[in-house]
Amino acid sequence: MSAEQSPVGKQPTATYDSAFLKACRREPVPHTPVWFMRQAGRSLPEYRKVREGIPMLESCMRPELVAEITLQPVRRHGVDAAIYFSDIVVPLKAIGIDLDIKPGVGPVVEKPIRTRADLARLRDLTPEDVSYVTEAYGLLTRELGATPLIGFAGAPFTLASYLVEGGPSRNHEHTKALMYGDPQLWADLLDRLADITAAFLKVQIEAGASAVQLFDSWVGALAPADYRRFVQPASRKVFEAVAGYGVPRIHFGVGTGELLRDMGEAGADVVGVDWRVPLDEAARRVGPGKALQGNLDPALLFSTTEAVEARTREILDAAAGLEGHVFNLGHGVLPDTDPDALSRLVEYVHTRTAR
Ligand SMILES: Cc1c2[nH]c(c1CCC(=O)O)Cc1[nH]c(c(CCC(=O)O)c1C)Cc1[nH]c(c(CCC(=O)O)c1C)Cc1[nH]c(c(C)c1CCC(=O)O)C2
């Protein structure tokens, strides 16, 4: 399929032919593409500077600021893709859920969603609710040239966890109580969230996202049979809703070694892997027809350059037989990471894999 025939029709041929999108499509690449989850913000001093005095959610609603923060890691590290600067709770805020992102804590929901009556608070998302997103994508696609821009959303389970718990949770007790105790209400909640998430991804693709990643960060808390029964139908609904656009769909979660096949089967083209499962083993678990993304332990970046490079070589060796590989960390960049360690890593992967 050529760029001109691309169902989205907006992305330039050079973007379509980028190493990142080729790897996602399992085509031959000039070098292994690299980007980092949570590359925008967090460890960069230039990020802290532009964010000074501006609350997180407010910064997500200012198109010029969003564009600047999204571009910072591309300029600094030379990564092969940009990820749109936002947060997984932005679409929930946009439909009027009373939540905030507390520094050092994460998303906090004033009145958690736990009853059937609460479901009514989850109304449909329209493009007008997130017009600032469309505007920021417009600025970004002009600036980025051939560098693809990844759109993203939180998956229904991970969003439900924040909504039901009222904030970050280690054990997801309220979430699981609802899931096992009232399976019909749970299914209806996840279905609502699937519609909101799908609508939010559509806005991003129509505004110029070249790929999308669905973050199910906390779904590793579930056993495979429960994942298939309680979560997979909603995640599948999201992936199916955007299938027609033809942009690669990436799916990622932490601690999901036992769920990799099921998460792929939910409808992903690329399966994200954390550092607990080697990529060759992950490929056996996922099965044919999908690319993999991963999987350097983000904490390793606090070690020596030699240690980072030795482990990176092991990852690239394990990935050598894959149909497609996008190099990434096994979870997001940690806030105290030395930005130079990230730049060196990009350079190292590019040099090692140049063909
Ligand atoms: C679970 C999750 C969240 N948000 C996100 C996930 C999935 C990825 C993952 O598993 O890490 C996704 C996310 N959040 C943010 C991005 C930006 C784009 C990127 O660089 O990847 C992305 C992709 C910005 C952010 N999201 C948040 C910040 C920090 C807010 C601040 O600066 O005050 C940023 C830059 C806040 C946030 N938002 C969330 C948490 C747990 C926290 C607090 C912890 C933290 O500080 O990182 C929820």
Protein described:
The protein is of the alpha/beta class and 355 residues long. It has 17 helices and nine strands. The strands form two sheets. A seven-stranded parallel sheet has the order 1-4-5-6-7-8-9. Strands 2-3 form a two-stranded antiparallel ribbon. Helix 15 (279-286) links the parallel strand 7 and strand 8. Helix 5 (63-77) runs parallel beside helix 8 and helix 9 (156-165) packs across helix 10. It starts with 12 loop residues before the first helix and ends with a helix. The structure holds coproporphyrinogen III. Residues 37-42, 56, 83, 85-88, 101, 103, 106-107, 152, 168, 215, 217, 332 line the site of coproporphyrinogen III.
Secondary structure layout:
Blueprint: H1 13-16, H2 19-24, H3 45-51, H4 56-59, H5 63-77, E1 82-83, H6 90-94, E2 99-102, E3 106-109, H7 116-119, H8 131-144, E4 149-154, H9 156-165, H10 173-181, H11 183-206, E5 211-215, H12 224-230, H13 232-242, E6 249-252, H14 260-265, E7 270-272, H15 279-286, E8 291-296, H16 305-319, E9 325-329, H17 339-353
Parallel strand pairs: 1-4, 4-5, 5-6, 6-7, 7-8, 8-9
Antiparallel strand pairs: 2-3
Helix pairs in contact: 5-8, 9-10, 9-11, 10-11, 11-13, 16-17
Coproporphyrinogen III binds next to β3.
